[in-house]
Hints:
- The chain has 249 residues and is of the alpha+beta class.
- The protein has one domain.
- The protein has helices spanning 12-18, 29-33, 174-185, 194-200, 224-233; strands at residues 38-41, 44-47, 55-57, 66-68, 71-93, 101-121, 124-149, 153-161, 165-169, 203-207, 214-218.
- Strands 1, 2, 3, 4, 5, 6, 7, 8 and 11 form a nine-stranded antiparallel sheet that branches.
- The longest helix is centred in the last third of the chain and has 12 residues, at 174-185.
- It is elongated and about 65 Å long.
Amino acid sequence: MKIKPHLKTCAPAALVAVGLLLSSAQVSKVEAQSIPGVSESTDGVTLSISALNRVFDSLDAGFVPIEQGPVTIVISSPAHRLEVFANHLTLNPSERHEEGVQAFFEVDLEGWGDLVAAVQTAVGSTPYQDRVVVERQKVSAEVVVKLVTTEIGYDMTLLEALTPTVAFQIESDMAREIVETCLAFAALLPGLGCDGISASLARVEVPLPAAGTQYEIDASFLTEDERAVLDRFALPAAESQVAGPGLGN
């Protein structure tokens, strides 16, 4: 049996995708104006999901490795805390997927984290660790998803990640230490690109899940108004038995 991740335990990148649980709601102008918390503009339908405005910790985060010439920096975060202050989801019908909706999701957050980095070169690997600060900032992602009703709520399937990663700006003393190590090896390994390492470590990227990734959404996670939108526009399970090209089962 395939176990789907639950939205309440998503990693930071998936946290951005959490808001896309409303992305199958192709709401007309009249309908949008009748739902509290939903607005309509030329840019599309915009909603805010109240349950996301809270503190997230112990998330299963994965980061994109940083590559500078022959140097590869592998990053992980065993402990962290992110507080979400606000979120906005803007929806438009997808021109690329018949059953999907293109959605732009933005999150206003701040926090901290323990960052572990392994600097890998041809002569070996050197570990580093530091407490980093995530100053208050807005991060965003754009994807296309498909929503299907289930017995407990909904299944959300990621059809396409239009932005492959979510980028976070961080502040850390680790970059200075790694650059110093890089300069020490520069004589042995030409082309290390030490100058770019400091800038690269000020911005870490979390990859969005692959197409076909599914999330289970418990209806209790949503407000009554949010459920009303989903119930009106989500596909019944019986109509989605045959998966489209590229979708996981």
